[in-house]
Amino acid sequence: xxxxxxxxxxxxxxxxxxxxxxxxxxxxxxxxxxxxxxxxxxxxxxxxxxxxxxxxxxxxxxxxxxxxxxxxxxxxxxxxxxxxxxxxxxxxxxxxxxxxxxxxxxxxxxxxxxxxxxxxxxxxxxxxxxxxxxxxxxxxxxxxxxxxxxxxxxxxxxxxxxxxx
Length: 165
Hints:
Layout: H1 15-30, E1 33-34, E2 40-41, H2 43-47, H3 53-72, H4 76-93, H5 98-106, H6 108-121, H7 123-164
Antiparallel strand pairs: 1-2
Helix pairs in contact: 1-3, 1-6, 3-4, 3-6, 4-5, 4-6, 4-7, 6-7
């Protein structure tokens, strides 16, 4: 049967098992611990408290979602969006204290599980929104790089003029 863009025809032989694993891992990493306030956090938030190693370990576990998405045949745009979720959590999570608080709320694994579920339910819409988010993120990254380059060059020129007239 040819693969089309609706879930009824999307069939991977191990889809149900992969989705079950992702659901369980998402819950464990991002929502398995109930706080007295009623909010939920996961093991990822606790592991992230270990300086350096915690965020890298969390990113490695989160990478399993991207690998699983590839096994399910999800498009590169959706996997790129999943990778962005992991990068945001890892990079901001590496900032002491502020990053740890951010990590508790961002929940990249839960976001990525929802992306897999959304794609399997509505492939075209999820692909379009993922394309837009990945393209927008790339544009912002390029703009920040160019802005940073201009600032650095400006500071070097200013320092040169100050030191050597």
